[in-house]
Amino acid sequence: MPYSNEHKTVLQAIMHEGALHEARGKELVIRLFKHNNTAQILSEINTKLRPLCMTIKSINCEVTGELYWIFANTVQDKTASFNSEFSQAELALLRNVYSEIVTSNSGWVSSTFCLNLCPSINLKLSKTDAEQFLLEMVNRQWLCCKDGKYYMGVRSIAELLQYFKDTYEGNLHICTLCKQELFYVMFL
């Protein structure tokens, strides 16, 4: 099937959401293409994206197990960053939260601990502003929050994995079955 406006619609939905829940993606594919072969559609879109060093990745949320489709750059480097819509203080807080998540034994950090990081970033950021920012990061799937704990979000895993590998090499857990990096390791 040739690349069509329907393909573009799926791509735009993923880009707009940042992380599109697989169930919503499947509904969109069925509505647009009259079939549910999402693997075929994503492959056709990725064929068009490959020359642009972009891709659609399927990433499982480590906390919920739910699958998301994420538009990501295939050329990752240490300079991966957010656009300028966030202040330097907010980005410093996010880097500190990432650091705490990656270096923890549990793969999460409490929301209270995150807010108490504010004075350590040496930039003006109130706890109220920090809380709003962290909620925005959850809404955008950069972080996952459950029961007052912050975990690595699916967009962070998809888009910043190389940064985490380069920065926290000794702290990343590797799944013995799939050989993929894990941030949240649930012990039974």
From TrEMBL:
It catalyses: S-ubiquitinyl-[E2 ubiquitin-conjugating enzyme]-L-cysteine + [acceptor protein]-L-lysine = [E2 ubiquitin-conjugating enzyme]-L-cysteine + N(6)-ubiquitinyl-[acceptor protein]-L-lysine. Gene3D superfamilies: 3.90.1150.220, Winged helix-like DNA-binding domain superfamily/Winged helix DNA-binding domain (1.10.10.10). Belongs to the NSE1 family. Keywords: Chromosome, DNA damage, DNA recombination, DNA repair, Metal-binding, Nucleus, Telomere, Transferase, Ubl conjugation pathway, Zinc, Zinc-finger. Its EC number is 2.3.2.27. GO terms for biological process: double-strand break repair via homologous recombination. One of its GO terms (cellular component) is Smc5-Smc6 complex. Component of the Smc5-Smc6 complex. This is Non-structural maintenance of chromosomes element 1 homolog. It is found in: Chromosome, Telomere; Nucleus. InterPro entries: Nse1, WH-like_DNA-bd_sf. One of its GO terms (molecular function) is zinc ion binding.
